[in-house]
Specification:
Blueprint: E1 2-3, E2 9-14, E3 25-30, E4 41-42, E5 48-58, E6 65-73, E7 79-86, E8 97-101, E9 108-109, E10 113-114, E11 129-133, E12 138-146, E13 152-160, E14 171-172, E15 181-188, E16 194-200, E17 210-216, E18 224-227, E19 239-242, E20 245-248, E21 255-258, E22 263-270, E23 281-288
Antiparallel strand pairs: 1-2, 2-3, 3-4, 5-6, 6-7, 7-8, 9-10, 11-12, 12-13, 13-14, 15-16, 16-17, 17-18, 19-20, 21-22, 22-23
């Protein structure tokens, strides 16, 4: 869900109907504080399958909304990310434009896939995280991808609001060769600062997971980063009940929000174990001053 500066509420979801692989993105919006929502609008369809991970942001005034999502392309042609926009409070949306293709997306969904090192668990991997920067009127998207060195890294790309077909070459955010990074969350401060939070295995050379905060004050040209968590944890050792044991699972998304002088972020981590099974996962919050 996203609330624009003009008060419009947007809710988006992927419709998994159970009849084949097609799962279109739907969006509903409200202009009266959520008391009423318009008829949902389907943004993707046709030969695009497995659409999911949709996120919405709006421009400075809230007059234009943008939705980004990822999908698997028909014919085994890989996984891509798409963008669409609405200029009428979500009543209609433009034809989705493919703005990037994953080289090798981070997939954390065992036993079907687990594409990074370390103990296996279900968790957030590769998905597009958008932010609209009011300081330069550009739409930014951060995402995780596995590069040619077989490491998961966090990348960022952007496009001017006036031309969503003109995206910048992707660049790495705060590169670190020691381990995998994934589950990127992005936000933009009112003064133009970009903030990113992501899970990070570089501090322990892919043994444990931490949370890293990275920030840029020059629109993504350079980045500084800091370790947020005091110690790492092994996600494969925690999870949800499954028969007499557990299924390692730390959730699908984290979150970040940017204010003028600070950033706040949430993530999933282990809590105190009660009983015999390590099933107590907690939601953590941290505030960082860039």
């Amino acid at each position: 869900m996203w609330v624009g500066n003009d008060g419009t509420i947007y809710v988006t979801w992927a419709q998994f109907h159970g009849f084949g692989g097609n799962s279109p993105i739907w969006i509903a919006s409200s202009i009266d504080g959520g008391r009423n929502f318009g008829r949902p609008v389907k943004v993707s369809s046709g030969n695009i399958r497995s659409d999911q991970d949709a996120r919405i942001v709006t421009n400075a005034t809230g007059s234009v909304a943008y939705v980004v999502f990822d999908n698997a392309i028909q014919g085994g042609k890989g996984s891509a990310m798409y963008v669409s926009k609405s200029t009428d409070h979500g009543q209609t949306w433009s034809t989705p434009f493919q703005f990037a293709v994953f080289s090798n997306p981070v997939c954390l969904f065992p036993p079907y896939c687990f594409s990074i090192d370390g103990g296996q668990f279900r968790g957030p991997g590769s998905y597009p995280a958008p932010a609209y920067n009011v300081a330069n009127n550009r739409l930014y998207v951060a995402y995780a991808d596995i590069d040619v060195n077989k490491r998961a890294q966090v990348f960022i790309t952007s496009a001017p609001e006036s031309d969503l077909t003109n995206w910048s070459p992707r660049s790495v955010i705060a590169d670190d060769p020691r381990g995998d990074r994934f589950a990127a969350e992005l936000s933009a401060a009112p003064n133009g600062r970009l903030d990113v939070a992501f899970y990070d295995r570089s501090y322990t050379r892919n043994a444990l997971v931490d949370l890293t905060y990275a920030t840029s004050s020059d629109f993504g040209t350079s980045w500084s980063s800091v370790r947020v968590t005091k110690s790492g944890f092994d996600p494969s050792a925690y999870g949800v009940p499954d028969g007499d044991g557990i299924r390692p699972f730390i959730g699908d998304y984290n979150g970040i929000v940017s204010l003028s002088s600070t950033a706040g972020m949430t993530w999933t981590g282990p809590g105190k174990t009660f009983g015999s099974l390590p099933t107590n996962l907690e939601i953590y919050f941290a505030k960082v001053t860039p």
